[in-house]
Design goal:
The protein is mostly beta strands. The protein is 11% helix and 41% strand. The model is unreliable at 1-39 and 268-280 (pLDDT under 50).
């Protein structure tokens, strides 16, 4: 090598450099995508479906409504839609597009609901299919009467009372596992859930209705406003000695008819001349309440 000749620099082929840059770009893009998606989920994506009732008995020739609820990955209710309903034995029971089952002949069949799953990020929201089944037992015994027990009741606003529906056939035999639909004549006075729990929402009277296979029974419920009255007062401190011109802060505690104990501290003073106040005696209200029911 000539001493005056500079050493040659080894050149990387242009194609190889371009390929390396493209690979790096893809890696960066994938990394950014993963970083934005990991730990996220679509709160509106359907992750599960509940079909109710899971098992039910219905008389020949009668109909019943199956209900679906859709949940996200956190177990919260979201909007969803059933794509298909199907009965495993249409000789026993038929099902239409809104989940209404019609009993055809005595026997058992499985009625299924199919819906789409997913729409968000993460495995729990990955696209897929949900399928739930309800066991439908068709009985030759039809419902002749429904009785609500007790037949009447009285509750306060905010309180809950349990009612039961007794379903019987024409011979007076109790029919088990029949689907009962509950309602009230006025939700502004009382509401009822699927299990017959009636909750007072406003003063007044309502009729609670339990329906099963075109038969229904009723019960009357009176809902009363809760009247709160003071039954006892207590003052803290019970006694105190002060100098002329010195001020004293007293605290009044009250015991109400509903059992609540409250202390009135609204008159607490921030005046430096006040002997007792909330700043200096944070437990003053507790002391007043402690004097109730001595």
């Amino acid at each position: 090598m000539d001493g005056n000749t500079a050493p040659r620099t080894r050149q990387r082929p242009l194609a190889l450099v371009f390929s390396s840059l493209m690979t790096l770009a893809v890696v960066v893009a994938c990394t950014e995508t993963m970083s934005t998606e990991v730990g996220q989920y679509d709160e509106n994506a359907v992750a599960d479906m509940v079909l109710l009732p899971a098992e039910v008995v219905v008389g020949v020739g009668r109909t019943l409504q199956l209900r679906t609820t859709f949940l996200n990955a956190q177990g919260e209710e979201v909007a969803g839609q059933v794509d298909a309903w199907e009965s495993s034995d249409i000789q026993i029971a038929l099902v239409d597009g809104d989940g209404t089952v019609t009993a055809v002949a005595p026997g058992e069949t499985e009625v299924s609901a199919t819906a789409k799953k997913g729409g968000g990020h993460g495995r729990e929201n990955a696209p897929g299919q949900l399928k739930k089944e309800s066991k439908v037992i068709v009985s030759p015994d039809t419902v002749a009467s429904v009785e609500v027990v007790p037949s009447s009741g009285s509750i306060n606003v905010g309180a809950t009372m349990q009612f039961e529906a007794v379903v019987k056939d024409a011979d007076g035999n109790v029919l088990e596992d029949r689907l009962v639909t509950w309602s009230t004549s006025n939700d502004q006075v009382a509401t009822v859930d699927d299990y017959g729990n009636v909750t007072g929402t406003g003063a007044g009277s309502v009729v609670v209705v339990a329906a099963c296979e075109e038969k229904q029974g009723t019960a009357s419920v009176d809902v009363q406003e809760v009247v709160r009255e003071i039954v006892q007062l207590a003052i803290w401190p019970a006694s105190v000695t002060v100098d002329t011109g010195q001020q004293v802060q007293f605290y009044v505690a009250a015991l109400w008819t509903d059992g609540a104990k409250e202390c009135d501290s609204s008159a607490a003073s921030t005046d430096t001349g006040v002997l007792y106040n909330l700043t200096d005696y944070p437990a003053a209200c507790d002391s007043a309440i402690a004097r109730l029911n001595p």
